[in-house]
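During the no-cost extension, the postdoctoral fellow (Dr. R.K.) reprocessed legacy sequence entries with the updated structure-token encoder. One reprocessed record is reproduced below for audit purposes.
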Amino acid sequence: HRDSDAVAASSASLSWHQRRIQSDAADRRSIGREWQARTRLREASAAAALSRHPHVPLLAIDYEEMTADWRGAIERVYRFLEYPLDPAALRRMASIAADRRHRRHHYAAADFGL
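Re-encoded structure tokens follow.
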């Protein structure tokens, strides 16, 4: 779970960075509207699917929880799935988490009309 406006802004930023490489006409506001619509559609589709299948087990992980304690969140996911968490896989995840290249990207929602 993450605030839908934050998801739309982050997605718009990532999309804009990719599009501007290929075009001099990549418009931030139109990309913002597109990702706001996509985000709302995804949320509505997910809610509809979940309401049709209330018997299916669900694990919710908040974005803030994942960013504050990624290891604890991953361990919760593996426990929920009843899947063993391989120590080598956990070490690789830790390596990625520690890598400075995998830090949050910087953007302002207002840049995308959001």
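The CA atoms of residues 32 and 114 lie 7 Å apart. The chain has five helices and no strands. The remaining legacy entries will be reprocessed before the final report is submitted.
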